[in-house]
Design goal:
Largest sheet: 2 strands, antiparallel
Radius of gyration: 17 Å
Number of helices: 10
Low-confidence stretches: 1-6
Distance between the termini: 35 Å
Shape: globular
Mean pLDDT: 89
Structural class: mainly alpha
Strand content: under 5%
Order of helices and strands: EEHHHHHHHHHH
Length: 209
């Protein structure tokens, strides 16, 4: 019989907030959305309508008109994806992260009516799950709340990349705990990256506060 561990090391969020039950939070979320999280895209260099449908399964709510507009940029999106290794990870040293190609990828979505950071990153997360967090409204609010520079002018891609860079600060601070949670989830057949686990913790905590 498996012994369930009810508590795991604390995750420290901004403002000194301590999340003492990160594994439980992740498991509660996965109990409702396991079908989406279980999907593993093996087409790391391609981008088509199936990726946008998957994003909608994860709550992106991309309309038919928005899907058509995004697919008009398909060539530009795929060229940018090919510049980013499929195993690129935000847990790697800052100097080794492909920041410029990432900005180019994000800029491929610029000026599409109705498409912001949330829908874009939900569409791209599965393509580079260890690198690109889902920057939905909750995560954006968390990242910008105490950091006015995150609202500074720049291209669409530059602003999105700045948010990812800010996200990395939290990831680095909690890396060992996130890795521990990742291993525990893997033992239960959930294969999530540290990037996605941190997203679940931020979102789950914010949703109940």
């Amino acid at each position: 019989m498996r012994i369930v561990r009810e508590r795991m090391s604390t995750i420290i969020l901004r403002g000194g907030v301590e999340v003492e039950n990160p594994l439980e939070l992740a498991l509660e979320f996965l109990a409702s959305y396991s079908s989406y999280e279980a999907y593993d895209s093996s087409r790391s260099a391609s981008f088509d309508q199936s990726d946008l449908r998957l994003a909608n399964r994860g709550g992106a709510r991309i309309s038919a008109a928005e899907i058509a507009a995004i697919l008009e940029r398909r060539g530009k999106i795929e060229r940018a994806l090919r510049k980013i290794h499929a195993d690129a990870s935000l847990t790697h040293p800052t100097s080794s992260i492909p920041w410029m190609p990432l900005t180019q990828l994000f800029d491929a979505f610029a000026d599409i009516h109705g498409i912001g950071f949330s829908k874009m990153t939900k569409a791209l997360h599965k393509k580079r799950p260890a690198l690109i967090p889902m920057l939905d409204s909750v995560v954006q609010a968390y990242l910008t709340r105490d950091d006015p520079e995150m609202r500074s002018p720049g291209s669409f891609g530059e602003r999105a990349t700045a948010l990812v860079g800010s996200y990395k600060q939290d990831l680095d601070r909690n890396r060992s705990v996130l890795h521990e949670i990742q291993q525990e989830l893997a033992s239960r057949t959930y294969r999530l990256t540290e990037v996605r686990i941190l997203d679940l913790v931020i979102w789950s905590l914010s949703a109940v506060t």
